[in-house]
Specification:
Blueprint: H1 12-24, H2 31-47, H3 54-77, H4 82-94, H5 101-109, H6 117-141, H7 148-172, H8 176-198, H9 202-207, H10 211-217, H11 220-226, H12 234-242, H13 248-252, E1 255-257, E2 269-271, H14 279-304, H15 310-338, H16 344-354
Antiparallel strand pairs: 1-2
Helix pairs in contact: 1-2, 3-4, 6-7, 6-14, 6-15, 7-8, 7-14, 8-11, 8-12, 8-14, 14-15, 15-16
Length: 359
């Protein structure tokens, strides 16, 4: 493909000229080479699709569709066997109907493309607040602390930071269910941190090898009860349903029913693999992730206020609360209203969050 400038606009005439010159160089009767030359030009057109002129794009689309239709016809005539299955999978990949693991991994390895303002704002707030959390932890580490209580609290805060880092990564790639699992885990750690602060005797059991008693006394529900909270926490239950519990509600976030029936007249159910970039799922997830960091900041201050600067505490907690509320008011609430949902519960929830003490 020498002489082709990738950034230049490629016209239909240029593609046709390239194909004509390629075919003229072939000896008569060499059909295998003819096919190869055609596929070379088509491959080039597909790889440089964004640089094609509109007429060249239409030509490429027609050629691609023709090749795909022809391939499908040929595949159906092949005898059943391993080779046919492998070829059908390759064909499905060319149509975007086959999940490619390597492509999904490369997406996870790369930096996500944040197109929506809500996701850009989420990332900004999340990174700023998580940095506040780690900075406060740094200040704590500059002092000498001793005892099982401080050890347990500092260790669990460290685990929460890791959970939040993973949450950000998964959220930005729209892995809704997996991100909720990590938020749920962070909230479990948060309750234990609070328990050790209010009722320090339980840290001894947490540090012990009595696993049977730990399961009985330090389960998430039992910890909430010891803290005087209701045994049933609707927010924790929500994270559990959409996260690790494998519920029908969780499956619904990843499945869709096509409007058209199949050729056999059956309903068609599609499932997202490699995340689920549905707007409202992402919006709620981002909002709850920010709220979780806010709760962790509050608890860290309650545990180690003596090692922190009061002026900075007031600034960080006020900004964290305001940013989290503003995110919900600017992005989540408008979506709910546009979707004609009853927003009373959400508005009441935001009012209750507005009253969360930061001292």
């Amino acid at each position: 493909m020498k002489g082709w400038r990738k950034q230049a606009v490629i016209t239909k005439e240029e593609l046709q000229k390239r194909l004509r010159e390629s075919l003229l160089s072939i000896e008569q009767g060499d059909l295998q080479l003819v096919n190869k030359k055609i596929m070379d030009v088509l491959k080039f057109a597909v790889e440089n699709y964004d640089n094609l002129a509109s007429d060249a794009k239409k030509l490429t689309d027609r050629l691609t569709e023709t090749c795909q239709d022809f391939a499908a016809e040929v595949l159906e005539k092949l005898p059943e066997g391993k080779e046919k299955r492998m070829l059908k999978r390759l064909h499905a990949g060319s149509l975007g109907e086959r999940f490619l693991v390597e492509a999904a991994i490369k997406t996870l390895e790369g930096r996500p493309e944040l197109k929506k303002d809500s996701s850009k704002e989420f990332r900004r707030i999340f990174i700023a607040r998580l940095q506040n959390l780690t900075d406060f932890m740094y200040d704590v580490h500059q002092n000498t602390v001793s005892g099982a209580i401080a050890f347990g609290q500092i260790s669990l805060f460290g685990m929460c930071i890791d959970e939040l880092l993973v949450t950000l990564h998964l959220t930005q790639h729209s892995y809704i269910n997996q991100a909720y699992s990590h938020i749920r885990t962070a909230l479990e750690h948060l309750d234990k941190i609070e328990l050790f602060r209010i009722k320090p005797k339980w840290v001894e059991l947490w540090c012990s090898n009595d696993r049977k008693r730990m399961r009985e006394e330090l389960s998430p529900a039992k910890v909430r009860k010891k803290l005087g909270k209701p045994k049933y926490d609707p927010l924790y239950s929500f994270f559990s349903e959409l996260g690790p519990h494998g519920t029908f509600k969780a499956v619904q976030t990843k499945t869709f029913r096509k409007a058209k029936l199949s050729l056999k007249g059956n309903p068609q159910i599609l499932q997202w693999l490699g995340g689920c970039p549905v707007e409202h799922h992402v919006l709620f997830l981002e909002g709850y992730a920010l709220y979780t960091i806010h709760l962790l900041l509050i608890q860290l201050v309650k545990c180690f206020e003596q090692f922190l600067n009061q002026e900075e505490i007031d600034e960080v907690l006020t900004e964290s609360r305001n940013d989290t509320l503003e995110y919900f008011k600017r992005y989540v609430l408008p979506w709910a209203k546009r979707s004609n949902l009853n927003v009373t519960d959400l508005e009441n929830l935001l009012k209750s969050w507005s009253g969360v003490k930061t001292e």
